[in-house]
Amino acid sequence: MNKYILSTIAWVESIAKREILKQWWTIFKVKDRIIEFEWTDDVMIRVNLWSRVWNKVYKILTESENIDDFDKLYNLINNINLKNYFKKKFPLSIKVKSINSSLFSVPTIQKITTKAIINNLTNNSGERVKFDSNLEKFEIMILLINNKARILLNTSWDSLHKRGYRIETWDAPIKENLAAALVLLSWWKFNERFYDLFCGSWTIVIEAAMIAKNIAPGLKRKFAFNELWIINRDIYDKELIIAENKIFNGTYDIFASDIDSNILDIAKSNAKNAGVLDNIKFMNIDFTIYIKKKLKWTLVSNPPYWYRLNVDDLDYLYKNINKLLKENKNLKWWIITSYFLWFNKIIKLSNFKRRKLYNWWEKTYFYKKIN
Ligand SMILES: C[S@@+](CC[C@H](N)C(=O)[O-])C[C@H]1O[C@@H](n2cnc3c(N)ncnc32)[C@H](O)[C@@H]1O
């Protein structure tokens, strides 16, 4: 058994937990964007492969209480069997998070960690290690909370929101793991229609289609665990085959529209890479034409809230969104926006609930209609 830590985007821990329970039926510790679990390495592979809303999966290399001076930190790191993990001389990226602990100087912690790792890898011989700058950096995280130190190895590499299908981007795309969280929070039933009337580069509808088809989000990307230490490649290949066999080829009614078609080619190639191009219908249209149509089922959208629009335009746009929502009583809708001041002025708070979320570093609210 090994110990792992998952980091999630803020405020979606409940969704992350729901996803874990669905896959593994095991309860983990869930707190402040962190989920802890203990399992074998094959489960770590599966967690990386199936992560829809998480950011990174870290393996806890070692941990200890009372790490309140640099000698203790050095010894803790120097005693890890690091050669088990490094096949090649990867350059290091040492990240530090210190909360309420005696050691808090980030540069000094990084210096001590580097020294301890080099001495560890060279059997304390004093030999110089030349890291191979042609290789990608990998991350070691030093987490200090109330003097409890945890030395973590990032098994994912890039954050898991990077699925590998988005080759090109456009202005203001929503993060893939946030888009997946929105779809999951909407409780969309796959046999009903799903709309995004401000679809941009299609992130929300691509994630919706991947969820409906049960496509593992990590199928198209690479992971640190494949490069860093010798995991049994057969286990990974087996997990890939299991994931491929879990894909449903049902038909889904997923509808995307946008006033701008300049990004259509990018959106289509993203959807094709994700394996869902045939599942999405697109129209190049202004959303206001839907005000008088009787829309039903589920709408999840991320309308503009700042870029390229001035306040008057936004004012007009959100008034029309309000009309659309009022006219379409049978529509279950969820809107994510950071334009909350104005939004609050137009829509009566008593008619909806909101949940705070972060899109990249921007605070946004996800509004939900209350029936
Ligand atoms: C914040 S972006 C959506 C980004 C998208 N979620 C993504 O991940 O790429 C808002 C989108 O609303 C579109 N838009 C602006 N005004 C519109 C209108 N009147 N009707 C339809 N779409 C509109 C813009 O073209 C833009 O693509």
Give the C-level CATH assignment of the largest domain. Alpha Beta
| General form | elongated
Helical content band: 25-40%
Bound molecules: S-adenosylmethionine
Specify the CATH architecture of the largest domain.
3-Layer(aba) Sandwich
**How are the strands ordered across the major sheet?**
2-3-1-4-7-6-5
CATH topology tier name of the largest domain:
Rossmann fold
Structural category: alpha/beta
Overall mean confidence score, pLDDT: 87
Account of the protein in words:
The protein has two domains: 2-154, VC0802-like; 176-213 and 248-369, Vaccinia Virus protein VP39 (Rossmann fold). A seven-stranded mixed beta sheet has the order 2-3-1-4-7-6-5, covered by helices on one side. It has a seven-stranded mixed beta sheet with strand order 10-9-8-11-12-14-13, covered by helices on one side. The model has no long low-confidence stretch (mean pLDDT 87). The chain is 33% helix and 25% strand. The chain has eleven helices and 14 strands. The chain binds S-adenosylmethionine (SAM). The site of S-adenosylmethionine has 18 residues, from helix 6.
